[in-house]
Amino acid sequence: MDDTRSPGRRTLLAGGLAAAAAALAGCATPGSPAGRAPASPSPGASPATPAAAFARLMDGNKRWVSGDLQHPDRDPTRRQLVAQEQHPFGVVLSCIDSRVPPELLFDTGLGDLYVMRTGGQAVGPVVTGSVEYGPMTSGTPLVFVLGHQRCGAVKAAYTSLREDEPLPGNLQAIVTALRPAYERALKEGGSDPVETMARAQVRLTADDLRTNADLAPLVRKGALAVVGGYYSLDTGAVEILTDAPSGTGSTSSPPETQKNPS
Question: What's residue 39's pLDDT?
Answer without folding.
Answer: 41
